[in-house]
Amino acid sequence: MGLSAFQCAMEGRTEHAPTSDEYPETIVKRTSFESGGGFGWKISGLWTPRETPAEWKIVVVTGAPSWAEYWAPTLAALPLEREMLVVDRPGFANSEPFHCVPDIRTQAEALLPALDAAPGQRVLLVGQSYGAAIATLMASMRPEAVGGLVLLSGFFGEAGPTAKFWVEMGSKVLGLIPRDLKHAVMEVIGQRKQLHPVFELLSLYPLLITFVHGDRDDFAPIEVARRVARTTLVPS
After folding, report:
1. Cβ contacts of residue 60 below 8 Å, gap of 6+?
2. Are 152 and 132 a contacting pair, CB within 8 Å?
3. At what angle do helices 161-172 and 179-191 cross, to 10 degrees?
4. Number of structural domains, the chain?
5. Which of 29, 77, 90, 103 to pair with 38, CA 20 to 30 A apart?
6. What gap in Å lies between CA 178 and CA 5, rounded to an integer?
7. pLDDT tens digits along 24-40
8. What is the CATH number of the domain that holds 149?
9. Do the beta carbons of residue 23 and residue 72 sit within 8 Å?
10. Nearest Cα residue to 15 out of 180, 163, 130
């Protein structure tokens, strides 16, 4: 992804492999919506068009850097009875603003319209890596709209060895790396001090929460995810 970010910066693009080059718009389509929170930003994403709304709409809040483009093969493989929207988070790829938005609550507010659904449609919210904390806040802001929350390789303030290496290196050359990589480094550095409300929500929020995590993840350690998951257990 880092090499792709450099290539995009050199060629003036916001995505490394536009879906129009890979999939027809009947399968995977670029879309956008106005952000929530009154910020007036255009939020971009990829979605799976359906002739009639699917029973479940899966909304994915991606990690850092946030590129929906990397989810295109997953979107294309989705069965017709499911619908998916993967967003470019604020400050990344095709989404506004063009500056970094380090506050995770602000990002959650901006992404709330992604939870809008057709009548009778249920929403499964997926937070991937850095997006896990943001998705948790989104679920708490609109609990009536979320049928389930999945935290996929959730990142909660403690980096694994690979992530730590790249963040430390990136922080030393912020002025030299492409925008999206710079924003990712800035986000990760400032996330930990914002997590207390997220941990409280995970321990108290009456919602089905599923943790999915690789046991060899060296970006977001599984030990941290296990520790966070234990806080969601409510004594019977």
Report:
1. 68, 71, 84, 85, 86, 87, 126, 128, 131
2. yes
3. 120
4. 1
5. 29
6. 6
7. 999 999 999 999 999 99
8. 3.40.50.1820
9. yes
10. 180
| Residue pair 201/143 in contact by the 8 Å Cβ criterion | no
What SS3 class is residue 53?
Answer: coil
Residue type, 215: D
Taking the C-alpha atoms of residue 106 and residue 74, their distance in angstroms, rounded to an integer, is 28
76 located within any domain: no
pLDDT in tens, 177-218: 889 999 999 999 999 999 999 988 887 766 678 999 999 999
CA dist 38 → 25, 26, 45, 131, 215 (Å): 30, 31, 19, 21, 40
DSSP 83: E
Q: Is residue 146 part of a domain?
A: yes
Distance (Å, whole) CA 21 – CA 11: 16
Between strands 82-87 and 42-47, the pairing is antiparallel
Decide: pTM greater than 0.85. Answer: yes
What is the span of the domain harbouring residue 163? Answer: 2-6+27-65+83-111+121-230
Is 11 part of a structural domain of the chain?
Answer: no
Q: What tokens does 88 get?
A: 């470019």
Residue 236 in any domain: the answer is no
